[in-house]
């Protein structure tokens, strides 16, 4: 069973094909796992071997090509006709003498694309340099065009069904954040808090079971709060330190992310000031969101506000978010930052991520929102404050 | 704090440099996150943006290059001198006008490698086709050699310290599998079992906290047991179905994997026969393991045994395993399969993965072992049987 009805995928394909026509390609070789899922429903942890969805510009169902043992997952999770599900033998996997992209090339050739204009995702995770080398070598008469992010830009404006699933993810992350704040306590090991958080993420709610998010629980405690992508450890949480929590609910691989910060003890004045400024900055940023606004406008509203309070932030304050697999839940398209002139449209969705990574400590506050017809809707409902525990 | 003392990394670098000399490269551009960790200790969830460890053939500490906000993670987790930790500005990230590999290229040039023989990991996850294009364009006088898996082959033979950490992961997976078998019950949602499994993986033991493994819990229930990489769902486990569990303990990013199968009800005779044959096949395979044996010898011992019982398996039965990040815990070097002539050496470690994916159902049995001086050592202790629950 695909996550959505067939007509949802048909609409996505139609929007993709419109962009393919603009890009002047005959066929699209989609290898980003999130894009494969988006266009066909395909959902399996098989992206550690080469696989692809082939989308011809002309009407008709795409083709799925992957490892033989994963073809059954394609049958179970996509809307594709079974004769569009093709696979390669297991001895292609990690072979020293042949490469799965040779098989993909032969499928392209068999379907009349040996001399076609083939669009590929040149900067997508898992589309390695060798993948392209093998394809070029196998199809010397084809023209290869790097159309990276073409499908990601289609994904950037969500459908009503996708918004509904992100709302379900919001119900999950509300629970997850409460579990997390409860778990962070002096003397508790960081890994034990991470364990409870992951449990809550995957259990979901009674109504909506969860997936493992594309990013693991981010639990940045004490000195790790100064760097956003540190791993948790066995060390216990300590008194008089801050812990930043960047977490997500994940439903049908759609994400609703949220960050909050917990302080164990009496927070220093400086942290209070950062917390207040960040909260004001978030309000200012959200107030700037509406159809027609540019992404850079939202960042500017934030920047003006925190600059007034005497703070600054050198990194972007958010990005488009939606369906994804590890290692990252972002759509990799629009960013909330200076010089990003993407025009906001209704049902674009962003993770507004205000990470203040200071010298030796940090503070995080973030929420996921959608652009509405008139402004914004924050998906999850959770107090925006510094959580202080004795 | 790096996971191991400095001398461990020095030994790894020395072994890597010996292979670099054989490969005739002046410098290695290491982008595989597991290889970056292996050579320097670097551990952060930052591999969703371009980053690299640069290893000169000549003695001296490697260089770390990554995103500015992650430099602090490099300071906290590696043994590198601080002036070997270099970073790029945040506006390189997902930019439409510049690429982080331009910055990496400038670092290479600044350190005298603008005309060097540069080895890169051409088939490594996250080393995209565009990464290589940008490097070639930025350093037109350099020679780029695809030395993919060079570091992975160094990783394939573990050090005593690594073996010790894999033993810790074994203690974790023993607990995890018991939690999993207890959790699979008629009427329980699959996601709720997954939640408890993940919780156990990350909690670890009192002595050794866990990491989130490179592969999520694999819970293949009923029809999903016919395909190895399916995701769990909200659906409850049903009576008279099998559930295959492929799980891992993960400690300091080192994995000990294990698979077992649970049947809810009275197993059909066919499943009993597969279970018995698989168990015999595993014993035969393990009996063939010793220094000097070839990987294909192990597979042959398995194949002869299950063929006698009237079964066959078209996919490989195992692979080298160790330190890794998502999406996969394999070393991507030696496989236990026909025609793999890798010679087994002491302290190579393998996941012997006997997945029998049949028509509409399946059975899995697997364990992780190391090659010893005289034979093998299975890391985890757990009954090798079909678990039958009423």
Instruction: Report the order of strands and helices of chain A.
Output: HEHEEHEHEHEHHHEEEHHEEEEEE
Shape of chain A: globular
CATH superfamily heading of the largest domain in chain A:
Creatinase/methionine aminopeptidase superfamily
Number of helices of chain A: 10
Strand portion of chain A: 15-25%
Tell me the count of domains of chain A: 2
Q: Give the C-alpha Rg of chain A.
A: 22 Å
How is the largest sheet of chain A built, in terms of strand order? Answer: 4-3-2-1-5-6
Distance between the termini of chain A: 48 Å
Helical fraction of chain A equals 25-40%
Category by helix and strand content of chain A = alpha/beta
**CATH level 3 topology of the largest domain in chain A:** Creatine Amidinohydrolase
The low-confidence runs of chain A, each spanning 5 or more residues with pLDDT under 50, are: none
User: Quaternary arrangement of the chains shown?
Assistant: homodimer
Query: Biggest protein-protein interface?
Result: A-B, 84 and 84 residues
The CATH architecture of the largest domain in chain A can be named as: Alpha-Beta Complex
Biggest β-sheet of chain A, characterized? 6 strands, mixed
Q: List how many beta strands of chain A DSSP finds.
A: 15
Can you identify the CATH class of the largest domain in chain A?
Answer: Alpha Beta
Mean pLDDT of chain A comes to: 97
């Amino acid at each position: 069973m695909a996550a959505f009805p067939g007509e949802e995928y048909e609409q996505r394909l139609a929007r993709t094909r419109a962009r393919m026509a603009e890009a002047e390609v005959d066929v699209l070789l989609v290898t980003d796992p999130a894009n494969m899922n988006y266009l066909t429903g395909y959902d399996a942890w098989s992206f550690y071997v080469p696989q692809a969805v082939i989308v011809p510009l002309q009407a008709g169902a795409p083709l799925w090509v992957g490892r033989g043992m994963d073809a059954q997952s394609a049958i179970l999770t996509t809307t594709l006709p079974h004769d569009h599900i093709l696979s390669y033998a297991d001895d292609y996997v990690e072979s020293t003498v042949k490469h799965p992209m040779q098989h993909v090339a032969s499928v392209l050739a068999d379907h009349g694309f040996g001399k076609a204009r083939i669009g590929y995702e040149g900067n997508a995770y898992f589309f390695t340099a060798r993948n392209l080398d093998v394809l070029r070598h196998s199809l010397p008469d084809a023209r290869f065009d790097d159309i990276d992010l073409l499908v990601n830009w289609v994904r950037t404006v969500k459908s009503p069904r996708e918004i509904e699933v992100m709302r379900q993810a919001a119900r999950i992350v509300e629970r997850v954040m409460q579990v997390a704040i409860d778990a962070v306590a002096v003397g508790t090991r960081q890994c034990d808090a991470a364990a409870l958080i992951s449990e809550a993420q995957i259990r979901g709610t009674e109504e909506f079971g969860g997936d493992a998010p594309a990013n693991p629980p981010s639990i940045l405690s004490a000195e790790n709060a100064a760097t956003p992508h540190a791993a948790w450890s066995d060390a216990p949480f300590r008194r008089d330190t801050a812990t930043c929590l960047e977490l997500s609910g994940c439903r049908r691989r759609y994400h609703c992310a949220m960050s909050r910060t917990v302080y164990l003890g009496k927070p220093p004045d400086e942290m209070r000031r950062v917390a207040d400024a960040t909260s004001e900055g978030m309000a200012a940023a959200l107030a700037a969101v509406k159809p027609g606004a540019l992404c850079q406008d939202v960042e500017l509203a934030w920047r003006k506000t925190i600059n007034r309070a005497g703070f600054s932030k050198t990194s972007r304050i958010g990005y488009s978010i939606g369906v994804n697999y590890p290692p990252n839940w972002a759509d990799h398209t629009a960013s909330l930052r200076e010089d990003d002139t993407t025009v906001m449209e209704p049902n674009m969705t962003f993770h507004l991520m205000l990470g203040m990574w200071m010298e030796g400590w940090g503070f995080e506050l973030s929420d996921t929102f959608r652009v509405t017809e008139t402004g914004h809707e924050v998906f999850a409902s959770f107090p925006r404050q510094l959580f202080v525990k004795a």
